Amino acid sequence: MKKSKTRSHAFVPWITTLALLVVWQIVAMALGSASLMLPPPTAIAHSITEHYDVIWPNALQTLYTTGVGFAFAVVMGMLFGLAIGASPLIYRGIYPLLIAFNAVPKVALVPIFVLWFGIGTVPAVVTAFSLAVFPIIVNVATGLSTIDAEMEDVMRSLGANRWDILTKVGIPRMTPYLFASLKIAITLAFVGSVLSETIASNEGIGFLMQAASSRFDVPLVFAGVIVIAAMAVIAYQLCELIERRFTHWAKRGK
């Protein structure tokens, strides 16, 4: 019974997506010539197949910059999160600066990154990193800072020092928080890469969409959106699979 229920739930996103596409197609057909601003899914699919040789290398470029930026965000996010969560002094000194940095619109930082690193891959990587790192830091620090006081007292009564509490209680406790943040961070990393590619790059899906927009090739613009959305969903699902593998003990069975 449980397996059949799980399988039926797996079809729900596909059914919802198919229904959305059908409604989209009907609306676009009803608009007629006005659908040039909202091309039907069939036109977008045709654009993807027609421009596959252009979309594919640009999609790989975006995937590369997103992956590198996300990897750096995971490493730095864990380091800063552990430091902030474990030390009240570091929390008071660094956390306000991180909040201020996160509040700055990243579109305003891309020109600065371009001045520092030039046009191309590096600004996209840095932008992806800057968007993805904050949720990781916050969640890791939150997981460490919410250790039960009773648990700490028990550990100290057993002779544990601060390092023992951090490694044997704090880090396992923050693991679900970490993987929850990774699912958010990977999608934000895609946003950062595409944003930078749109402004200051000569390759990537963002650059492709900008070039298509300048030619009023609306189906190709939407094709870029679909490709980015598909890659983000796949990356999100991979993070979710890893989360289930390493944090199944923290989830209540359904």
Structural account:
This protein has 254 residues and is mostly helical. The longest helix has 39 residues, at 162-200. It has one domain (48-250): MetI-like fold (Orthogonal Bundle). Helix content is 85%, strand content 0%. The radius of gyration is 22 Å and the shape is globular.
Write the layout of secondary structure elements.
Blueprint: H1 2-31, H2 41-50, H3 52-86, H4 88-103, H5 106-117, H6 121-145, H7 149-157, H8 162-200, H9 205-214, H10 218-247
Helix pairs in contact: 2-10, 3-4, 3-6, 3-8, 3-9, 5-6, 5-8, 6-8, 7-8, 8-9, 8-10, 9-10
In short:
With 254 residues, the chain is mainly alpha-helical.
CATH classification, class level: Mainly Alpha
Q: Would you identify the CATH H-level superfamily?
A: MetI-like
CATH topology assignment: MetI-like fold
Task: Count up the helices.
Answer: 10
Return residue spans where pLDDT drops below 50 for at least 5 consecutive residues. Answer: none
Number of strands: 0
Q: Key terms for this structure?
A:
single chain; 254 residues; mainly alpha; MetI-like fold; 85% helix
